[in-house]
Amino acid sequence: MAIPIDQAVTSFKALISTVKTDVQTRSWFAFLIQQTALRERLSGEAGVERLYHDLDKIVSGQRILYMLLLFLLGASILSGSYFFIAMSLVTLVVGAHMHLNKKGIVEKICSSLFLKDFKGFFFAKKTLYQIGEFYGQKHRILPLVDMIALSDRISWKAFIMTVFVTYFIYLLNPGYGLFFAIAAFYIIRAIVNTSFVYKHI
How many domains does the chain have? Predict the structure, then answer.
């Protein structure tokens, strides 16, 4: 059914709210705003260049953190050492702090983007996924809905693989194995939803 010209489907506030609350949507927009053409377009806004500078530092730090986390998780499975488990938890706390900082920066940059582009009824008549399709085509990246689907597939495959390794190869006890399987799912999901991975998909 056609949408009346005066009927909005979404709004600036709704878009920002989704970026704020949905991890995968925020990850995709974080990747979008790092595209060279879009970055150059937004950097002229007051304070945005500084936000990009802070975002660059966090993204670089997250790459190192995720590599360390994968090492610690693997070492925990192979050795069964509580030391590596404890170090993994400490690393997760640091990662959570970085995640919160990145979240705030992405929201602010996306606000600048939406304020520039949300004019008239062009976006108002589109759903979130249609907006993702628009930006995806414009900047030649995988659209939002496709990226979410791909991220979910990879995350679940990682979960199944970890269950197989922990239960059938290393024969860990059920509780221990379940802990590593769940940890692997969320860690891999976090890694998959990074700009570095998105760039190479």
Answer: 1
For residue 71, what are its two tokens? 């090492």
If 0-12 CB within 10 Å is exposed, 13-18 middle and 19+ buried, where does residue 31 land? buried
Asked if 28 contacts 201 with a C-beta cutoff of 8 angstroms, the reply is: no
- pLDDT tens for the chain, residues 1 to 201: 444 445 667 788 888 899 999 989 999 999 999 999 999 999 888 789 999 999 999 999 999 998 898 888 778 777 777 888 888 889 888 988 999 999 999 999 999 998 888 765 567 778 888 889 989 999 999 999 998 898 888 888 877 887 777 777 666 667 676 777 777 777 788 888 888 778 776
Kindly state the DSSP code that residue 3 receives in the 8-state scheme. Answer: P
For tokens 């920002």, name the residue: 16
Contacts of 89 (CB under 8 A, 6+ apart): none
DSSP H stretches of helix in 2-127 = 12-21, 23-32, 36-42, 48-79, 82-117
Domain of residue 159, residue span = 12-200
